[in-house]
């Protein structure tokens, strides 16, 4: 997306705001100073549109340039500043024909609009002060949400809950800075204006709040992006059977011959409102060659990237492949084939379950345990809670924590009030960047470039 400039913001933009393809209704959106003027050029009885009250829907006949009927449609009018973008907005609800859509957009462009860039409507909402940057990102997350938990997280952020939390911490930082600046203003009096213990206490509270917020990111990321659950273990222990059983459909090939699965197979499902990316992998083992060795390498890479691993063993065999030590803290050991005589003992240090993938017994325990181990379920984020879901926010809060810690150290070592103030200002700056108050244009362009055209 091109850099934001004054001229581009003065343009009136147009785009299809609904998905392409055949359907009942499509919405074409106009936003900008000339929206009403342009819309009036393509409707019959344009005087009615120009006299229309804001936030009203009316019927209109859209015309070709030669005056012939293009479509019998509806339009919605939203006058500035009380529109999504903060500008005059007209939305045409038209029949979802590719021909009609193309001609409505073409007519708008011929009358002076230009095609919108990806995310430009939401970018204008941000630049016109209708929403802050965190709320703008939440719009994209809301559109992309595939599960109840992701939806709740996006709604919470879009409603401004995270922004209000950040604003509160930001205000506390500035109040502390104000106290320190008072100390500088009265430095000639040789009287301590602010108690050192009080300042350290204030900073400790701010740091504690920031650390608590920072530490919500891993959970928030999984709520937003979904959880990557990888099924792994030795060959022929029933991994693909378990994969199919959890999906309730035959997606992976199952055969008694070991090594049937070579390429990883994945599918998206939802457990307890949380999006899950379930991955079936090739059997792990040593002394493999050729395609089998490549499959094992890929399987190990999947295990490394997993949020949680379901390590499957065959209960009907006395020997089994133990999981690597580096995944124990994010692993649930699944003893499969519990419907057959159990011959092996599961080490007590492993969190484990016994199931029969073939018979379908014990499978609900897997879903419950996965969500419990990750502290995730559909109620794990309520409207009004504060959770970081984006890496950009996490990095900003982590840097804010570091700056507060630098200020604490400077105060304890009496390095000078100016240095302490500088560190606290730096912390406040990092927090401001979350809401877009101090954010570089290249960051803004990258954020809004992730949107679809028409939003």
From TrEMBL:
GO CC list: cytosol
Entry's EC annotation: 3.6.-.-
Residues given in the record as Mg(2+) binding sites: 240, 261
Domain MnmE helical: residue ranges: 133-452
GO terms for biological process, alphabetical: tRNA methylation; tRNA wobble uridine modification
Residue stretches spanning the membrane: none
Segments forming domain GTP-binding protein TrmE N-terminal: 12-130
Pfam family, one: TrmE_N
UniProt subcellular location: Cytoplasm
Annotated family: Belongs to the TRAFAC class TrmE-Era-EngA-EngB-Septin-like GTPase superfamily. TrmE GTPase family.
HAMAP family recorded: GTPase_MnmE
Role according to the record: Exhibits a very high intrinsic GTPase hydrolysis rate. Involved in the addition of a carboxymethylaminomethyl (cmnm) group at the wobble position (U34) of certain tRNAs, forming tRNA-cmnm(5)s(2)U34.
Database matches in PANTHER family: TRNA MODIFICATION GTPASE GTPBP3, TRNA MODIFICATION GTPASE GTPBP3, MITOCHONDRIAL
Name of the protein: tRNA modification GTPase MnmE
Lineage: Bacteria, Pseudomonadati, Bacteria division LCP-89
């Amino acid at each position: 997306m091109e850099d934001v400039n004054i001229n581009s913001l003065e343009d009136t933009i147009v785009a299809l705001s609904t998905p392409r393809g055949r359907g009942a209704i499509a919405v074409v959106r106009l936003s900008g100073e000339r929206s009403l003027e342009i819309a009036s050029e393509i409707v019959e009885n344009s005087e009615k549109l120009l006299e229309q009250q804001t936030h009203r829907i009316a019927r209109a006949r859209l015309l070709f340039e030669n005056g012939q009927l293009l479509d019998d449609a509806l339009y919605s009018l939203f006058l500035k500043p009380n529109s999504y973008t903060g500008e005059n907005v007209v939305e045409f609800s038209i029949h979802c024909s590719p021909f009609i859509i193309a001609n409505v957009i073409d007519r708008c462009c011929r009358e002076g609009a230009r095609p919108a860039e990806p995310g430009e409507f939401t970018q204008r909402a941000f630049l016109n002060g209708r929403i802050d940057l965190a709320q703008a990102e939440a719009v994209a997350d809301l559109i992309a949400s595939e599960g109840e938990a992701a939806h709740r997280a996006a709604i919470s952020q879009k409603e401004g809950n995270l922004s209000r939390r950040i604003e509160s911490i930001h205000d506390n930082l500035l109040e502390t800075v104000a106290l320190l600046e008072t100390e500088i203003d009265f430095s000639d009096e040789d009287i301590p204006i602010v108690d050192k213990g009080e300042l350290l206490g204030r900073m400790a509270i701010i740091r504690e709040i920031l650390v608590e917020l920072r530490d919500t990111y891993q959970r928030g990321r999984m709520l937003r992006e979904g959880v990557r659950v990888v099924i792994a273990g030795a060959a022929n222990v029933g991994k693909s059977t378990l994969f199919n059983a959890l999906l309730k459909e035959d997606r992976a090939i199952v055969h008694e011959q070991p090594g049937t699965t070579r390429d990883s197979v994945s599918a998206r499902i939802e457990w307890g409102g949380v999006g899950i990316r379930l991955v079936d992998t090739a059997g792990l083992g040593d002394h493999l060659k050729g395609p089998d060795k490549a499959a094992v390498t890929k399987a190990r890479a999947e295990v490394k990237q997993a949020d949680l691993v379901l390590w499957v063993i065959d209960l009907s065999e006395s020997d089994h492949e133990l999981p690597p030590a580096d995944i124990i803290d994010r692993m649930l050991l699944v003893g499969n084939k519990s419907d057959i005589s159990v011959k092996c003992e599961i080490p007590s240090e492993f969190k484990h379950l016994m199931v029969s993938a073939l018979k379908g017994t014990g499978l609900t325990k897997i879903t419950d345990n996965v969500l419990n181990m990750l502290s995730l379920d559909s109620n794990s984020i309520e409207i009004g809670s504060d959770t970081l879901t984006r890496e950009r926010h996490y990095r900003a809060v982590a840097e804010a924590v570091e700056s507060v810690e630098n200020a604490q150290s400077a105060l304890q070592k009496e390095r000078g009030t100016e240095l302490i103030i500088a560190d606290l200002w730096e912390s406040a700056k990092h927090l401001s960047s979350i809401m877009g108050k101090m954010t570089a244009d290249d960051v803004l362009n990258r954020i809004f470039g992730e949107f679809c055209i028409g939003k």
